[in-house]
Structure to design on (84 residues):
């Protein structure tokens, strides 16, 4: 288990079944989830001091993560409402 904050499973603990179903069956969702993981990993590496980034770059990454989280959350909510 990873120790990175903000992983999708931690963000949506009550929707894990829907999350995994969407990742397995919907390419667009899987691509967004993969990008979210990439951005979240980049933020983690900067905040842990493993990589260097300007404050502006870190802020841009955090904004992108939030945007992706909003999109993914809507898709999870919508899929859960219709039974995926």
């Amino acid at each position: 288990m990873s120790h990175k904050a903000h992983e999708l499973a931690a963000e949506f603990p009550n929707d894990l079944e829907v999350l995994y179903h969407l990742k397995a069956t919907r390419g667009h969702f899987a691509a967004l989830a993969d990008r979210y993981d990439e951005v979240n990993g980049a933020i983690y590496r900067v905040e842990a001091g493993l990589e260097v980034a300007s404050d502006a770059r870190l802020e841009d990454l955090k904004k992108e993560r939030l945007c992706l989280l909003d999109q993914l959350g809507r898709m999870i909510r919508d899929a859960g409402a219709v039974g995926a």
The mean pLDDT is 93. Residues 15-81 form one domain. The CA atoms of residues 29 and 75 lie 8 Å apart.
